[in-house]
Amino acid sequence: MIQDMEVDLGNYLRRMRERVQPDEIGLVTRGSRRVPGLRREEVAALAGVSQPYYTRLEQSQVPHASSSVLLSIARALELSDDEQEYLLRIGTPETVRKTRDMPPDRVSAHTRALVGSLGNTAAAVLNYRCDILAWNPLYHRLIAPHLDVRVPEEPSTRPNVIKLNFLDENVRGLYADWATESLYNVSYLRFIAADHRGDTRFAELVGELTIKSPEFVDLWTDQHVANCTDGVKVLNHPVVGPVELMYQTAALQDGHLLKIYFAEADSPDDAKLKLLAMDPGLDGVRPG
């Protein structure tokens, strides 16, 4: 289960405490320190809570805390906005947070029409686990031309973005900076894990990646958290060569995510996308 992979308040607090160096926040230290980062008493003092109470939180003797306490600790540990949101999610009882119904793993006709209309923009629809529910021809030709274009149509063959990036050598080889790409993937997966700790299918995804990829394990246990929804990627595509693309991820009304790759209009990278969009020979054939 996901709990075994340290999606809990105590482990996260300890990891965040260990990464903060005293001199970075203006603390004067004397002599050697036997622990990395801040001491528990220092975090407690900075957050304005008692040391015994903070220790119980970090040792998971107290599984939850009030939002005000969690926000004070977040400030003491200098967490980013995404890290603070993650802390609030895992540190608040699930009965307090509003339970969201997960959308079914199917794409509405309107969403499918939207994806198909994007032309020279590579687009895919993902669920919260990053399974690809639908893609347009350009997304397929850009990211996974070695797969049959129809694989998202069946649950049993549906690709998963995180698994492709860690376990598929064809996709790994696309990224000019795979180390950064893998960090972004795991940071996002942990960010959304806070809302799906009881989800068996999510646990199975993390479990499979844990068994098959030591690199995933190293990144997952480091507790990086970020909601990576936009940025720039450089791909080394086997047909058009290096291409620098912007990407964005947006929430759809049906609860799914729309992921798009695009280039500045009339740029050399835009021309490469247009070339891929015109090449149906990259759509592959169904195996067997």
Largest sheet strand order: 2-1-5-4-3
Percent of residues in β-strands: 5-15%
Overall shape = elongated
Identify low-pLDDT runs.
none
Provide a descriptive summary of the structure in words.
This protein is α+β, with helices and mostly antiparallel strands and 288 residues long. It has two domains: 2-91, 434 Repressor (Amino-terminal Domain); 109-283, Beta-Lactamase (2-Layer Sandwich). 42% of the residues lie in helices and 12% in strands. The protein has helices spanning 9-19, 40-47, 51-58, 67-76, 81-91, 109-116, 137-143, 161-167, 169-172, 178-193, 200-212, 214-221, 268-277, and strands at 122-126, 132-135, 230-237, 241-251, 257-262. It starts with 8 loop residues before the first helix and ends in an 11-residue tail after the last helix. The model has no long low-confidence stretch (mean pLDDT 85).
Concise account of the structure shown:
The protein is α+β, with helices and mostly antiparallel strands and 288 residues long. The chain has helices at 9-19, 40-47, 51-58, 67-76, 81-91, 109-116, 137-143, 161-167, 169-172, 178-193, 200-212, 214-221, 268-277; strands at 122-126, 132-135, 230-237, 241-251, 257-262. The protein folds into two domains: 2-91, 434 Repressor (Amino-terminal Domain) (Orthogonal Bundle); 109-283, Beta-Lactamase (2-Layer Sandwich).
Give me some keywords for this one.
alpha+beta; five-stranded antiparallel β-sheet; Beta-Lactamase; 288 residues; single chain; 434 Repressor (Amino-terminal Domain); 42% helix; 5 strands
